[in-house]
Amino acid sequence: GFERGGAEGRSLHIQFADQKQEFNKRPSKIGRRSLSRSISQSSTDSYSSAASYTDSSDDETSPRDKQQKNSKGNGDFCIKNIKQADFGRREIEIAEQEMPALMALRKRAQGEKPLAGAKVVGCTHITAQTAVLMETLSALGAQCRWAACNIYSTQNEVAAALAEGGFSVFAWKGESEDDFWWCIDRCVNVEGWQPNMILDDGGDLTHWIYKKYPNMFKKIKGIVEESVTGVHRLYQLSKAGKLCVPAMNVNDSVTKQKFDNLYCCRESILDGLKRTTDVMFGGKQVVVCGYGEVGKGCCAALKAMGSIVYVTEIDPICALQACMDGFRLVKLNEVIRQVDIVITCTGNKNVVVRENLDRMKNSCIVCNMGHSNTEIDVASLRTPELTWERVRSQVDHVIWPDGKRIVLLAEGRLLNLSCSTVPTFVLSITATTQALALIELYNAPEGRYKQDVYLLPKKMDEYVASLHLPTFDAHLTELSDEQAKYLGLNKNGPFKPNYYRYVWKQQLWVWTINAKLGIYVQLYTYVFNNY
């Protein structure tokens, strides 16, 4: 993916440079059938095992078997218990205090209604933070229908509060695989209502519409995707010429990549492990598979707590970063017998397989910080010779015939949102970026974007960051006219070129010199082709 065009900002209407390309024709029927085959396996892998657990205190009746209505008599939702709405409302009000940018956006744009007429169908984690985003979109004029992107991450009380507020929400904690797809279908397949915008996290909603309702893309203006997994799917579709609407890659925006992925995981990894296992980190040997932004956050947190941290990585650049940050780079099989905790965060599949699981020491903790449950081969553990023992919510002991056991968290699904919570302030940054991306795609004139995947312009990233600075009583320095002229910048930004890479403490410095960019590209091409 690459950025297209520059940006001009006036109030909320941050615009890309005009591009006059026409939209390509939608895929043929043959193309759609190929598309379904190419991505259905990935979606099935992501949600392959049914939830085997619900809190014992909850009503065991499936929400699908209940007839519930809110106080206004509306029943267009399916949640665990509408009676939890008051509790959920208090959770949302707490989240609002830590989401200043969304609240500012709601206040500034409410009069303009930039999303008037927008019909947004969403598939994300349904938490108090998501509720603030949904209510902001509604205040800006949008109609919303929502499902969960993870069977364990839904906060039931928040879903109840949203349903009481008139939102069509279909989600509850502990869905089965069948429930998961049923909820998505209920969001999409409704008489008299058709979405014209998609907000996705992981790509499963986009996949379902492609597979079941491809004609809907005639009216859909764009897709906003926030996860590594979902963005990867979009790039695959684009490369194959099968992406029939424009898409915004929010995951690789600076504000998402550097704040949500790095800082959020740096704090939530410890929270998730503590809540589920009560483990002490000092002196523990931990292997973190993957040293992207999520891996960097996990490693930094564990190192600060006194853990001995190993890293596995396929990318030599990320590997070198890990080495220079003081971590030992290893292959998984070199340390699997000795480590106390295994954490995956690669976005790949089969990172930890049965052979690795067989060789782990007794009581080794195994968990995943990636979006999908494909990284740990949990299916290989569902065999007659192994015994599963539920210890507490989201914690299973998998016991071998000789008595050895491993501690598997959230059945290999995303640890932080399945087993704990995440910092609200960081999610404010991501949610604001998502809202602005929806506004941009919805209001863009026809032809500005073709059927491709786009990154947000630097100006929009800077705008999102600026909305959060007042929380810290932070005061930006302003360029003088002379300084701006010297640097060749607009005084109001953007302040960095699109190729600029933001580097952070304890990370490898990567630089690009514009005047010599061609030389570096040629050098890279030579090395790639010859070695």
Automatic annotation (TrEMBL):
Q: Which reaction does it catalyse?
A: S-adenosyl-L-homocysteine + H2O = L-homocysteine + adenosine
Q: Where is this region: Disordered?
A: 1-76
Q: Where is the composition biased (Basic and acidic residues)?
A: 1-11
Q: Which domain of life is it from?
A: Eukaryota
Its required cofactor(s), as named, are: NAD(+)
Q: What is its EC number?
A: 3.13.2.1
Record's protein name? Adenosylhomocysteinase
> What species does this protein belong to?
Gouania willdenowi
